[in-house]
Amino acid sequence: QTQLVESGGGSVQAGDSLRLSCSTPPKTVMWYNMAWFRQAPGKEREFVAAISRSGPTTYNDDSVKGRFTISKDNRKSTVYLQMSSLKPEDTAVYYCAAAQPGTPAREPRSYQNWGQGTQVTVSS
After folding, report:
1. Strands 10-13 and 78-83: what pairing?
2. Which of 79, 104, 97, 100 has its CA nearest to residue 3?
3. Percent of the chain with pLDDT over 90
4. What DSSP line would sit under the chain, residue for residue?
5. What is the band of 65 on the pLDDT scale with cuts at 50, 70, 90?
6. Cβ burial 7-34 (10 Å sphere, 16+ → b, else e)
7. Do residues 103 and 89 touch, judged by C-beta distance below 8 A?
Protein backbone atom coordinates (compact mmCIF):
# COMPACT_ATOMS: atom_id res chain seq x y z
CA GLN A 1 0.00 0.00 0.00
CA THR A 2 1.40 3.37 -1.04
CA GLN A 3 0.95 6.00 1.64
CA LEU A 4 -0.37 9.33 0.42
CA VAL A 5 -0.66 12.32 2.76
CA GLU A 6 -2.62 15.42 1.77
CA SER A 7 -2.21 18.84 3.33
CA GLY A 8 -3.06 22.47 2.63
CA GLY A 9 -6.81 22.50 3.06
CA GLY A 10 -8.63 25.15 5.01
CA SER A 11 -11.46 27.66 5.14
CA VAL A 12 -11.34 30.54 2.68
CA GLN A 13 -13.57 33.15 1.06
CA ALA A 14 -14.92 32.93 -2.45
CA GLY A 15 -12.32 34.19 -4.90
CA ASP A 16 -9.36 33.13 -2.74
CA SER A 17 -6.67 30.62 -3.63
CA LEU A 18 -5.30 27.51 -1.94
CA ARG A 19 -2.58 25.02 -2.79
CA LEU A 20 -3.02 21.41 -1.77
CA SER A 21 -0.06 19.09 -1.46
CA CYS A 22 0.12 15.31 -1.58
CA SER A 23 3.30 13.79 -0.18
CA THR A 24 4.14 10.30 -1.38
CA PRO A 25 6.94 7.78 -0.83
CA PRO A 26 10.06 8.35 -2.95
CA LYS A 27 9.64 7.88 -6.69
CA THR A 28 5.89 7.23 -6.41
CA VAL A 29 4.99 10.12 -8.75
CA MET A 30 7.51 8.82 -11.28
CA TRP A 31 5.90 5.38 -11.41
CA TYR A 32 2.20 6.08 -10.94
CA ASN A 33 -0.40 8.31 -12.48
CA MET A 34 -1.60 10.71 -9.80
CA ALA A 35 -4.93 12.46 -9.37
CA TRP A 36 -7.07 14.64 -7.18
CA PHE A 37 -10.68 13.79 -6.45
CA ARG A 38 -13.17 15.54 -4.21
CA GLN A 39 -16.30 14.57 -2.36
CA ALA A 40 -18.91 16.96 -1.05
CA PRO A 41 -21.44 15.89 1.62
CA GLY A 42 -24.14 13.72 0.12
CA LYS A 43 -22.44 13.53 -3.28
CA GLU A 44 -20.34 10.98 -5.09
CA ARG A 45 -16.59 11.26 -5.34
CA GLU A 46 -15.76 13.52 -8.28
CA PHE A 47 -12.69 13.60 -10.50
CA VAL A 48 -10.84 16.93 -10.35
CA ALA A 49 -7.51 16.55 -12.15
CA ALA A 50 -4.83 14.01 -13.02
CA ILE A 51 -1.20 14.02 -14.03
CA SER A 52 0.43 11.04 -15.66
CA ARG A 53 3.82 9.79 -14.61
CA SER A 54 5.26 11.32 -17.80
CA GLY A 55 3.61 14.68 -17.19
CA PRO A 56 0.45 15.21 -19.32
CA THR A 57 -2.53 16.52 -17.39
CA THR A 58 -6.29 16.01 -17.51
CA TYR A 59 -8.98 18.14 -15.88
CA ASN A 60 -12.64 18.05 -15.07
CA ASP A 61 -13.38 20.66 -17.69
CA ASP A 62 -16.87 21.39 -16.49
CA SER A 63 -15.99 22.37 -12.98
CA VAL A 64 -12.34 23.35 -12.60
CA LYS A 65 -10.59 23.95 -15.88
CA GLY A 66 -8.95 27.34 -15.99
CA ARG A 67 -9.05 27.69 -12.20
CA PHE A 68 -7.16 24.62 -10.93
CA THR A 69 -3.71 23.41 -11.91
CA ILE A 70 -2.19 20.04 -11.08
CA SER A 71 1.56 19.66 -11.00
CA LYS A 72 4.22 17.49 -9.42
CA ASP A 73 7.76 17.65 -8.17
CA ASN A 74 9.54 14.40 -8.94
CA ARG A 75 12.44 15.18 -6.60
CA LYS A 76 10.10 15.75 -3.68
CA SER A 77 7.70 13.04 -4.82
CA THR A 78 4.86 15.47 -4.21
CA VAL A 79 1.76 16.33 -6.20
CA TYR A 80 0.12 19.75 -5.97
CA LEU A 81 -3.27 21.17 -6.74
CA GLN A 82 -3.22 24.94 -7.12
CA MET A 83 -6.76 26.24 -6.78
CA SER A 84 -7.71 29.81 -7.63
CA SER A 85 -10.95 31.76 -7.94
CA LEU A 86 -12.50 29.36 -5.46
CA LYS A 87 -16.27 29.08 -5.32
CA PRO A 88 -18.59 27.80 -2.59
CA GLU A 89 -19.33 24.79 -4.79
CA ASP A 90 -15.66 23.79 -4.52
CA THR A 91 -16.31 22.95 -0.87
CA ALA A 92 -15.43 19.28 -0.36
CA VAL A 93 -12.92 16.84 1.04
CA TYR A 94 -10.09 16.60 -1.47
CA TYR A 95 -8.32 13.27 -1.93
CA CYS A 96 -5.04 12.40 -3.58
CA ALA A 97 -4.86 9.06 -5.37
CA ALA A 98 -2.35 6.91 -7.27
CA ALA A 99 -3.03 4.54 -10.15
CA GLN A 100 -1.12 2.15 -12.33
CA PRO A 101 -0.37 3.64 -15.76
CA GLY A 102 -2.75 2.73 -18.53
CA THR A 103 -5.96 2.94 -16.49
CA PRO A 104 -8.77 5.49 -17.07
CA ALA A 105 -7.72 8.69 -15.31
CA ARG A 106 -11.21 9.93 -14.49
CA GLU A 107 -12.48 6.72 -12.86
CA PRO A 108 -12.10 6.32 -9.07
CA ARG A 109 -11.94 2.54 -9.57
CA SER A 110 -8.64 2.99 -11.42
CA TYR A 111 -6.92 4.12 -8.24
CA GLN A 112 -5.58 1.61 -5.76
CA ASN A 113 -4.12 4.04 -3.24
CA TRP A 114 -5.85 6.97 -1.55
CA GLY A 115 -4.92 9.56 1.02
CA GLN A 116 -7.04 10.42 4.03
CA GLY A 117 -8.31 13.65 2.49
CA THR A 118 -8.10 17.32 3.36
CA GLN A 119 -11.11 19.59 3.88
CA VAL A 120 -11.60 22.67 1.74
CA THR A 121 -14.40 25.03 2.72
CA VAL A 122 -15.24 28.08 0.62
CA SER A 123 -17.69 30.61 1.98
CA SER A 124 -19.49 33.26 0.00
Report:
1. unpaired
2. 97
3. 94
4. ----EEE--EEEETT--EEEEEE-STTHHHHSEEEEEEE-TTS--EEEEEE-TTS-EEE-TTTTTTTEEEEEETTTTEEEEEE-S--GGG-EEEEEEEE-TTS-TT-GGGEEEE---EEEEEE-
5. confident
6. ebbeebeeeeebebbbbbeeebbeebbb
7. no
**Widest pairwise Cα distance in the chain:** 39
- Give 51: exposed, middle or buried? Use CB within 10 Å, 0-12, 13-18, 19+: buried
Residue 22 confidence (pLDDT): 98
- Whether the CB-CB separation of 7 and 20 falls below 8 Å is answered with yes
pLDDT tens digits for 16-53? Answer: 999 999 999 999 999 999 999 999 999 999 999 999 99
Confidence class of residue 115 from pLDDT cuts 50, 70 and 90? very high
